[in-house]
Amino acid sequence: MLITLLLATLLSTGTPAQGKPDLKTPYEQGNGNQTATYEEAIAWYQKLDEAYDEVKMLPYGMTDAGRPLHLVIVSTDKDFDPASIKQKNKRVLLIQNGIHPGEPEGIDATMMLARDYLQNKKLRKQLDNVVLAIIPVYNIGGALNRNSHTRTNQNGPEVYGFRGNARNLDLNRDYIKTDSRNAQTFHQIFREWDPDVFMDNHTSNGADYQHVMTLIATQHNKLSPTLAKYLSGKMVPTLYEGMKQDKFPMVPYMNHAGDTPDQGIIGFMESPRYATGYTTLYNTIGFVPETHMLKPFDQRVKATYKLMENMIETIHRDADEIGKLRQQAKEQTLTQKQFALNWKLDTTKVTQIPFLGYEAKYKPSEVSGQERLYYDRKSPYSKKINYYDEFVPTVTVEKPVAYIIPQAWHEVTERLKLNKVHMQQLKRDTTLTLDSYYITDYKTSQRPYEGHYLHSEVQVETRRMPRQFFKGDYVVYLNQEANRFLVETLEPQAVDSYFNWNFFDSILMQKEYFSSYVFEDLAAQYLKQNPELRKQLEARRKQDPEFAKNARAQLDFVYRNSPHYEFTHQLYPVGRLMQEVKLPL
């Protein structure tokens, strides 16, 4: 009777008699073409947390959807303190899923992976020196917005989430600008756990080909030399070989040089708006797996699982090496003098890689009647294609001793605080002679991009000048782990600088003007007192007939070169202190 009651209890709780908890995922309970909802994923991880002392699910800050972002830690020695884990010289792998919830295979694959690494002794052994940190679903708002149609080019699953978050932001463009609460919370997680390796699981758009999995690795030119050598020479080749053995041969992400892959592909230069572009700023090795949209969902889930499995095995094998190289990279960042702000592709350097494709052909469109592209799956091929993956800097900058940031720019300083940037504040009003930028030219997008009218092609003029700063203004020394983050955000010429993301736009508008009839007499008097300026005005009239006809433009020329013109117009507020000065801190 006792045995019967015990069996009944086990069956009622869903726990198998052999002692392992029943943790079959929603994906496994489905037909291979279904993905877990946000609620199902969180409920499943709660069960995993309850079943294993080696698991802890932690709610962090809020997201734009009004729900907390969860982090699941799998630590086989039951240590969930990031500082303690680092002291034990363990590596942290941060896996993020559902940044684009219409690309959900990572959500399902990671659930199975976490369970299997706890239940399989051989796999579990690899967690002796590796801790898993898992974001089950990053874009919660998008995950709640489920449908079956918006991923037009994708083969399953039956129902999935939406790319935009609760504010219709693409979160994989929000890491630096940090408009979303999701990104604010991610910064908290990332800076607290300081992962050695980061994976952000995705599904691709684009051409048709035979490969199930493509991969974006951190652009090696942007990594410190020590990490870049390891990444390109050892880690990436290991992952490629492992996936080949697992029957999922990979190629780099299909960023085409031409219309089709056989014309060659270009490495992805991810700027800090993207996940791995941001994580690189802190010497974290980043990967964006991109499964192929047209492959069946179950194949995409399996390929994602296998890549994460190979990733953990590689980190386990190279744990000490990765730790030492990251420490060297951090030390290099502290002493680095020159930083690249902009890059271009070096087309003179090219390698050839094996590629499994389908022939690209053309036929009349049934919609337009015009020629249309299609890939003929009856004509597969295997050949080498060109791969361009070398970038060179086009704009570099010398690191200042410190940036001085007026406290008025709180949107900027708040983002620095989220990144645990060490900042001090002036204790009294102070005049400092330092380098300042004037914005001399820039381009602005004509349409909004992720909530902003993005600037680009910024030109600056550097002037050494005395400037007044006030008690409470921020001093940010570049002697810290966040050095590269600071340069990429506070140098206006950087691709994803805070200037380019419009946080300083108010400096671009002139606030004071002149009435022509009043300024005429002042301008005439000023030209008499400054004959050199008169020569410049006359030369300009000779060179530019339209200018010579425009009285207001000539008055404006004099105005802009006189003391009456506001010196703050287009003055970038952040000062660059280029030498050590004793400050009232």
Automatic annotation (TrEMBL):
GO CC terms: extracellular space
Signal sequence residues: 1-19
GO molecular function: metallocarboxypeptidase activity; zinc ion binding
Keyword Transmembrane helix: no
Cofactor(s) the protein requires to work: Zn(2+)
Keywords: Signal
Pfam annotation, one family: Peptidase_M14
BP term (GO), one: proteolysis
Domain Peptidase M14: 34-312
CDD domains associated with the record: M14-like
Protein family (similarity comment): Belongs to the peptidase M14 family.
Listed PANTHER family: PEPTIDASE M14 CARBOXYPEPTIDASE A DOMAIN-CONTAINING PROTEIN, PROTEASE FAMILY M14 CARBOXYPEPTIDASE A,B
Name of the molecule in the record: Peptidase M14 domain-containing protein
Organism ancestry: Bacteria, Pseudomonadati, Bacteroidota, Cytophagia, Cytophagales
